[in-house]
Design a protein that fits this description.
single chain; alpha+beta; OB fold (Dihydrolipoamide Acetyltransferase, E2P); Arc Repressor Mutant, subunit A; 3 domains; 3-stranded antiparallel β-sheet; globular
Length: about 300
């Protein structure tokens, strides 16, 4: 009996920074991508929003390419005739929609300096917001665990996997973290802590969650402290204030850049999670729209 590899919970922002591959000695041995935090990934469970899809094949033999975006970046998905169940599901899905994708990780090296990561789905299903939130939380929890495992590995550079197992890691976690530390070196913890922060901000709207974003994984706190401070701007003034910002930042008629809007709102006391809630509300009311990804424009 052939056992399937575990579908790992990994944010796109971690998976897409992976360049280390390990292949077995024969064709039937599983191949792995090892992330900078030490996750050995053969299969992955990806959760996010299906933003776009395209059939670059034919009606008789479809070949779907799609992009699924989570709180940290995009998973790139390729589905062909060898994945009939996933291909049929992809054909029936509409973008945008919440989806969960289970599939194998594939890499492609267009040159010596770049490694591109994509997914070959075994299954893709539409999910509701509650399921999305639960799976995002699980992924955030596992990312936090991997960060702390890496902190332990770097503090005990001579420790073996068996010795690290006594610190609460599984042997697989310890071996992956050791291999990642040897190949990638000390990870920039702020990059991965930001993934967790973005996830928590999405799960806990209305709270300005700030995890500190240390540069060195050695400075990573053992516990997450959540700042529950709220915006100083009264609710009645927020919409007019944001609409005024959109007018001010729309300098070329193509809409206000979201990164500038976030900074401008923060200077006025509106935290990023509140800004997201208010802009969503303005779009629901038909007052603003998103002409292109990353820009917001007043109607």
């Amino acid at each position: 009996m052939i056992l399937r590899e575990t579908a790992q919970r990994v944010f796109a922002g971690e998976l897409n920074t992976s360049t280390l591959e390990r292949k077995g000695d024969d064709e039937k041995s599983p191949a792995y991508v090892i992330t900078p935090l030490g996750t050995r990934v053969n299969r992955v469970l990806a959760v996010g929003v299906l933003l776009d899809k395209q059939n670059i094949g034919s009606d008789e033999e479809p070949l779907w390419r799609a992009r699924v975006e989570d709180v940290s970046g995009s998973y790139y998905v390729n589905v062909g005739r060898y994945q009939p169940e996933a291909a049929a599901s992809m054909a029936a899905l509409e973008a945008p929609s919440f989806v969960a994708v289970v599939g194998k990780v594939r890499t492609f090296k267009p040159d010596e300096t770049r490694t591109l990561v994509s997914l070959r789905p075994e299954r893709i299903v539409r999910i509701n917001a509650d399921t999305r939130h639960r799976l995002v939380l699980e992924t955030a929890q596992r990312t936090w665990r991997r960060l702390n495992n890496m902190k332990t590995v770097l503090s005990l550079p001579e420790a073996t996997a068996d010795e690290l197992s006594q610190k609460g890691m599984s042997k697989e976690e310890a071996e992956g973290a050791i291999e990642a530390a040897e190949f990638y070196g000390t990870p920039e913890s702020s990059r991965f802590l930001r993934l967790i922060q973005n996830a928590l901000r999405m799960l806990l709207p209305g709270k300005d969650i700030d995890l500190g974003l240390p540069e060195d994984v050695a400075d990573l706190p053992d516990e997450i402290e959540i700042d529950t401070s709220k915006s100083t701007v009264p609710d009645s003034e927020k919409e007019d204030l944001i609409l005024g910002m959109l007018d001010e930042l729309d300098r070329d008629g193509r809409g206000a850049p979201m990164d500038e809007l976030v900074r401008k709102a923060a200077s006025e006391g509106i935290v990023s999670t509140e800004l997201e809630e208010m802009t969503n509300s303005l779009m629901d009311k038909g007052l603003v729209y998103e002409p292109v990804l990353g820009r917001l424009k007043r109607i």
